[in-house]
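Researcher: Good morning. I'm working through a list of sequences from a screen, and I'd like to move beyond sequence-only analysis. For each chain I'm collecting a predicted structure so we can compare shapes side by side. This is the next one on the list. No need for commentary yet; just the structure.
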Amino acid sequence: MLYKLLILWKKYCNKTEKEVQEKWNGIFNNDIYFVTHSKRQNTVLPKTITPKLCYLIGWLIGDGHFQEVHSYTVKISEKNKYQLNLILKPLIKDLFGIDVPIFIGYGNNYRIQFGNKAVYRFFRNVLKIKVGEIPKWIKGLDTTNKRFFLKGIFDSEGCVVKGRNRLTISQAKLSFLKKVIKLLNEFNIYPNGPTFHKTKLGEWYSIKIESKKEFLKFAKNIGSDHIDKSRLLQGWVMKIEKKWSSGSSAPLGKISEMAFW
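Model: Good morning. Structure tokens for this chain:
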């Protein structure tokens, strides 16, 4: 809306394209914040797409929750409280400048839940974020941002099977997983599926990465920043590479540390 006003300013005040660009750059680079109900903290919004933001978007798309009525609520649920405390809570602080509370949820779950109109509209209106849907603009991201986006999806919706080298990502929407597969293919990773599941608990789909070669490619090129999943992932990587080092097959190389926290 602000940029549209600058275009009108150019038209009716006979300004040049250079003047419009200079004005826009001055406004864009200025420190802008949004007042919240708390007098002790203000909200800032990211001005560029970054790996940290992509990771959080991937998590929200996989397993977030938005509620607009009265509260403009953003919610993230997770079984591991340390994941919220050590990873997601500091990440939100870094991106938006706000401290968010952690609540005890149902069963063994915990949740980050906060009401913030600026952050809510940033996700919903600016970035067009919907749970279970991958925005069209993700296609235009560079490799690094796509990597962290996929990592956020895996950390929210994926799991590492303890008894074997298998990764799974599950979702109720088939279209979601088909788009995840296409993004994984860009990293030369080819999962099996999607597979349909139906139990008393409901219906959903899943994709699996089971072969040792694909498993290592996922660990090397995507990875995990989840406290539990990353440990299981690295544990299986060590077992696979140890076995391969004693055989004829060559490993894919050292698994890189992807975490940015």
